[in-house]
Amino acid sequence: MPREAASATRQCLVSRETLPADEMVRFVVAPDGSVVPDLRRELPGRGVWVTATRAAVAEAERKRLFARGFKQAVTVEPGLAERVDALMERGALQALSIARKAGTLVTGFTKVETAVNRGDVAALVTALDAAPDGVRKMRAVVLRRFGTVDTVPVIRIFASAQLDLALGSANVIHAALTAGRASDAVIDRVQRLARYRGLDVSDGFDGNATADLAAPQD
């Protein structure tokens, strides 16, 4: 089936709210009768839609709403909400890998600092397990260049080991995304993952959130 247009709206199986398709997860029934997520919205067959949050997907599973939505008996393997999370996380990490290959991602403190000083940064990536001293130093680089830490979005949602695997490097702690379509794809997928997990969007350096992707302030 063709991918849903970004402007399309669908009704949530759980809340019955009508929302943009981009804020929802589509599910279909596999040939064996099991319910599977269709994050790319491309699989054939009738689809049902759930608001793209872990809580909503878990509620649909817990209340056995998929059978009602599909109007047939279906099988929902336990842990559906966790599987959707894992698929979203994998998609975001794959997008990072693609950005690296496209040349819109650099790693290492020195290269990231250079990109920041050029003003050519769409977002920063900092490992969840980055040492506090390294985070303070990167914060100082951004503050020195822009006069505020709110100018550059910060992605802090992956551990260093995850970044290592995605980027084919060792000990990735700091990275920078520069302008480009590949970087836009990373930011979009990370935003979706953060919303799904119910993460607060606050300052990635100063706050407690693991993803700061709010629009830069003027």
TrEMBL record:
* Pfam families registered for this protein in UniProt: YlxR (PF04296)
- Sequence ranges assigned to domain YlxR in this UniProt record: 10-84
Q: Which domain of life is it from?
A: Bacteria
SUPFAM superfamilies listed in its UniProt record: L30e-like, YlxR-like
**InterPro entries recorded:** Ribosomal_eL30-like_sf (IPR029064), YlxR (IPR037465), YlxR-like_sf (IPR035931), YlxR_dom (IPR007393)
What's the protein name? YlxR domain-containing protein
Q: Which organism is it from?
A: Pseudoxanthobacter soli DSM 19599
